[in-house]
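Hi support team,

I've been running sequence recovery on a batch of backbones for a student project. Most finish fine, but this one hangs at about 90% for roughly twenty minutes before it completes. I'm not sure whether the input is malformed or the queue is just slow. I've pasted the structure tokens below so you can try to reproduce it. Let me know if you need the job ID as well.

Thanks,
M.K.
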């Protein structure tokens, strides 16, 4: 540990010429975010950054310096919109840099850049969940997307499924994996059977799957994306948080089983009659509760409601549940 209680670890070479910089996320149960870096003569490729926080920026810049990467002219590839992946890119990317992100995520950014619009979206979602007004306010004031994102972004280069990104000896194909976010992207290196998985597949934590405004069935999207990534037959995944994953399809099977159990659990809860999203969430079992739960109860409640909401949407699409009223109350159908 460094003198400020923040891990100061040198970049680790995971594969020839491909490095991981572990960027600390203080007070977050996620602990850290992985920035994957392939240094090249022309600035290098950087996959994901960190939050707009000095603790992240210091570690990332030290890692870049050690690897000889100039962020002012690097190519950044951002797997998805969340602040821990995208928040630092404005501070890092110089005029000579390229910032790539999924087309759908770039459209979503418009909602997140305007604080007013962001609060409107949160208020609408809070109403849908059946949360009290003060709980929505509390969640808004702690939302990482509001606290640790920049107020503007550099010009983004939209990337789509099937595009290629090359760096060093690596040739990645872009894979659109909606679910965790609507425009989430992974990078697939077929010759090495290597998947850079962002928050689509994580090792010892379950990716948060929430409902999104304008998305009918984000859990259904996620399960289809898992199916698709299982078909790649990856030998190794490099996730957005924590260490590399060896048995990728084994982990995918665990995530599929987790959501199948969750859907059954929600069906059991609904047997007791109509309930709001928040009431359903309160009765679900939560393994995501981390040591920092006490510090962020409102935020955790918000994420729990989002998860419950995604599972309810899935059940509705499957014809197993439906809702009525305002705020919506859910029941078996
Ligand atoms: Zn994320």
């Amino acid at each position: 540990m460094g003198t400020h209680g923040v891990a100061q670890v040198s970049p680790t070479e995971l594969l020839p010429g491909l490095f991981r910089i572990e960027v600390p996320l203080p007070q977050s149960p996620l602990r850290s975010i992985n920035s994957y870096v392939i240094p090249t003569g022309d600035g290098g490729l950087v996959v994901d950054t960190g939050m707009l926080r000095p603790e992240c920026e210091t570690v990332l810049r030290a890692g870049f310096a050690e690897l000889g990467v100039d962020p002012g002219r690097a190519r950044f590839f951002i797997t998805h919109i969340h602040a821990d992946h995208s928040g630092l890119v404005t501070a890092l990317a110089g005029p000579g840099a390229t910032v790539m992100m999924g087309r759908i995520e770039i459209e979503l950014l418009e909602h997140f850049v305007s604080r007013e619009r962001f609060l409107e979206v949160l208020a609408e979602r809070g109403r849908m969940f059946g949360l009290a007004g003060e709980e929505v306010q509390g969640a808004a004031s702690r939302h990482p997307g509001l606290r640790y994102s920049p107020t503007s972004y550099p010009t983004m280069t939209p990337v789509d499924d099937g595009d290629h990104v090359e760096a060093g000896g690596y040739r990645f194909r872009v894979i659109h994996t909606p679910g965790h976010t609507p425009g989430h992207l992974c990078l697939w290196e077929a010759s090495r059977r290597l998947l850079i998985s962002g928050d689509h597949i994580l090792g010892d934590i379950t990716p948060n799957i929430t409902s999104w405004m304008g998305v009918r069935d984000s859990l259904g999207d996620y399960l289809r994306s898992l199916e698709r990534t299982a078909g790649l037959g990856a030998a190794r995944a490099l996730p957005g948080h924590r260490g590399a994953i060896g048995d990728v399809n084994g982990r995918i099977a665990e995530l599929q089983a987790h959501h199948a159990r969750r859907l059954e659990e929600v069906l059991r809860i609904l047997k007791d009659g109509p309930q709001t999203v928040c009431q359903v969430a309160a009765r679900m079992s939560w393994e995501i509760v981390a040591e920092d739960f006490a510090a962020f109860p409102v935020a955790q409640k918000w994420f729990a409601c989002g998860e419950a909401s995604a599972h309810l949407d899935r059940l509705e699409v499957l014809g197993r549940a439906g809702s009525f009223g305002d705020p919506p109350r859910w029941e078996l159908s």
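--
Follow-up from support: It reproduced on our side and the slowdown came from queue contention, not your input. The pocket of zinc ion is lined by residues 80, 82, 180, 199 (CB under 6 Å). No action needed from you.
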